[in-house]
Design goal:
Length: 270
């Protein structure tokens, strides 16, 4: 075989290899992307100790109202779903980095959070109220917390409110911040703090499991807020996809049924 012919065959072989690799690579990406956004997995970021919205049950399975909503929504979208427990105080960073696609776990819609993420339409009201140890007297409203040690969840709506409140800065003895409300309620039961200010829905669920230990002071602290689903600022497409199926679930009664399962009644916003 002459040298020119040999070089020509080698060039053709190299071209064939490169073409095969290119095609293989394209096929690999297509399989990974599932042929488009419609089949991509959605990673849901959550605090997995936030009952009844999202938490681990006795079998270590993540369950809850928002979990059931997310499962049904992703099923209708034809997408897989993965629930990923995150440090709730770093939720904005998890979303912005792309480590999670959505925040779906009793997330209050606030002006501050709107600066860093997109939101679905609100789907549930949420108040911040006071919880005390059963039999406690003298704590009847926000002002009666003067001189008291108050607990709340770090990076939550109640913390945001108390951090900017002159009353809590100047008159409350101490605001103790916990990684989750369950830890705060345990300290309340044991007398380490005088009260907990936090989400009514989560607190009342905890009360239902500990009826002889905790009671609620039925008055709002701060403004009434609403729950929504958080999306990255640059992910309008996913936000709109999820909102569309949520609207369908509301219209056909699915959201009402899930609410009745977890709260005993339909408390979803109409």
């Amino acid at each position: 075989m002459n040298m020119n012919r040999r070089k020509g065959l080698m060039a053709l072989s190299l071209a064939a290899v490169m073409t095969a690799a290119f095609v293989s690579g394209c096929g690999s990406n297509a399989a990974k992307d599932g042929g488009g956004s419609g089949s991509k997995k959605i990673v849901v970021g959550l605090d997995d100790n936030f009952p009844p919205m999202g938490f681990k049950d006795e079998n270590n399975e993540i369950v809850g109202f928002d979990i059931d909503l997310a499962k049904e929504a992703t099923k209708r979208l034809g997408r897989e779903v993965e629930f990923k427990a995150i440090d709730w105080s770093s939720k904005e960073a998890e979303l912005k980095s792309g480590r999670v696609d959505v925040l779906w776990n009793g997330l209050d819609i606030t002006d501050k959070r709107k600066e860093n993420m997109l939101f679905s339409n609100p789907y549930m009201d949420n108040r911040q109220i006071i919880f005390v140890k059963k039999g406690t007297t003298g704590i009847t409203d926000e002002k009666s917390l003067a001189g008291k040690t108050v607990g709340t969840q770090s990076a939550g709506t109640a913390e945001e409110y108390m951090d900017k409140s002159d009353f809590f800065k100047k008159n409350v003895k101490e605001v103790k911040k916990y990684p989750d409300y369950v830890s705060a309620f345990m300290d309340l039961e044991n007398g380490r703090i005088d009260a907990v200010v936090g989400d009514e829905i989560t607190g009342r669920y905890y009360m239902s499991k500990h009826p002889d230990k905790i009671e609620a002071v039925d008055t709002a602290v701060g403004e009434v807020s609403t729950f929504g689903i958080g999306f990255a600022k640059d992910n309008q497409a996913l936000r709109d996809e999820v909102q569309k199926v949520l609207d369908e679930m509301k219209a056909d009664g699915t959201m009402a049924k899930i609410s009745e399962k977890w709260f005993g009644k339909d408390i979803v916003l109409k």
